[in-house]
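Hey, can you fold this one?
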Amino acid sequence: MLMTGIAGTELCKDEAQWLRHDAVAGVILFARNFSSRAQVTQLIAAIREASPRPLLVAVDQEGGPVQRFRKGFTRLPELGRLGVAWEGDRELAKALAHEHAWLMASEMRAVGIDLSFAPVVDVARGNRAIGVRAFHESADACAELGITYIEGMHEAGMAATLKHYPGHGSVLEDTHVDFADDDRPLEAIRELDLKPFVAGIAAGAEAVMMAHVRYPQVDAQPAGYSPRWIIELLRDELGFDGIVISDDIGMAAATGMGDVAARVQGHLDAGCDLVLACAPDLVPDALAACANRPAGDRDPVAMLQGRGEHDWRRLIANPRWQAAVERLADGPQLAD
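Sure. Predicted structure:
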């Protein structure tokens, strides 16, 4: 099953046709798809109308450097600022993490988004792509803040996605543009990077997004192409029974598997439930790669569907929304 990207701020004819394909579970939106809150609300409605089946609509609305929708939405601080708050007052930091998650998820649900791929529970250990997107360098801090973040998302009616399993924070390379190898043994990864994922799974996270990182002492394939990481460790050892999502097949570190068809098939064969094809020019080949595979069930869509009605006016009339905005939007609690 695929989640596809689209090119612009309106759904074109070819894209609407993609969404009727049996293999498509939903759409992931980016800044290129956004010009205003009213526009993106209309786009989301058009996406849903294009398919005879329920579709997921997703986005990366983490806050900080990765916030796709900005004008008309609360400008959220990066998660690393919650880690700074953790250094001074752990209970305050957890309260802020809960409020950050509730506010982010509530605003996304209010315009019809099912899920924002969050939270990042990688440890902050210098990775070029992760950086301030991570809570903290401490696995325990990431675990505690991640649990609270999941609770806030759930309160707002949104499923949580832990990323990037089994941990992207301890390598330097950015897998958008480079291959990345983490040459530590499994026990070292268990003692650090895996801890927040174990905690998040126990807290009820519904999805896990894979890292395009290779861990050669564990398996020769990058994690998203690895039955060892997905079936043996994530499913069997950690007991995760939710949805496994690949990272984008257009990223440089994904290309080692081969062409687009090989990447899609490799992720699905390894145990991924959803495969992200974020660049529109990759979508036709990704759809073709699914032609001879048996149609999947709709469990991923049902499990990750947003809960509750979406209504922007009702949200902003809620006193809690205003209080959360005042507390989080460049608030003094996070300034140091």
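The first strand starts at residue 2 and ends at 4. Let me know if you want another pass with a different chain boundary.
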